[in-house]
Amino acid sequence: MIADISVDDSEILAEIHRCCFDDYWSAKSFHELLSQDVFFGFIYKGKDPRGFILGKIVCCEIEIITFCILPEFQNRGIGKTLLTEIDNYAARHFVKNIFLEVSEDNVVARKVYKDFGYKEISRRAGYYQSQDCFKTAIVLQKACPYFAEMLANSCGYFFYK
Ligand SMILES: CC(C)(COP(=O)(O)OP(=O)(O)OC[C@H]1O[C@@H](n2cnc3c(N)ncnc32)[C@H](O)[C@@H]1OP(=O)(O)O)[C@@H](O)C(=O)NCCC(=O)NCCS
User: Is the distance from the beta carbon of residue 67 to the nearest atom of ligand 1 less than 6 Å?
Assistant: First the structure.
């Protein structure tokens, strides 16, 4: 089952995040983010919560802020299910672009984003720092087809008028 994320999920989001990242975020951080209107997301629940995706929407753009599935539930299609939810949300909100940053060495995430039509637009050297290691971030972007369709339809409307 997929549900909208709310501030009440802050503890569980922090717990999942801790299992997936070295530089994990606290429940307080999630609470602060989710108290702001621009942040939204989806949580995947089986018997228990298994993963989530958190985004930020500003004007016509979404940024995927963080995205993770508990290790024992990875590779079962949950990540792709949540990305589909983001696409649906983007369509409902007339979003033009979705973008995100991913570590250059994150093979699985890069594969999943590629399958969903995300394309590299730039690189940020040394963006991720863990212990003494600096890693390059790849900035990916996806143009939402629904936005182009809507634009084409409205242009048609204005030309017709
Ligand atoms: C990235 C992440 C969210 C993906 O979620 P997921 O539920 O495992 O993803 P899915 O099961 O939907 O899809 C995984 C895909 O990667 C493929 N894959 C798995 N391991 C792979 C590997 N080593 N190399 C290449 N592809 C791989 C799978 O075959 C699958 O592709 P398919 O649908 O064509 O078979 C999850 O791995 C995760 O939480 N990682 C840790 C946190 C993280 O890196 N988040 C992203 C930060 S940008």
Answer: yes
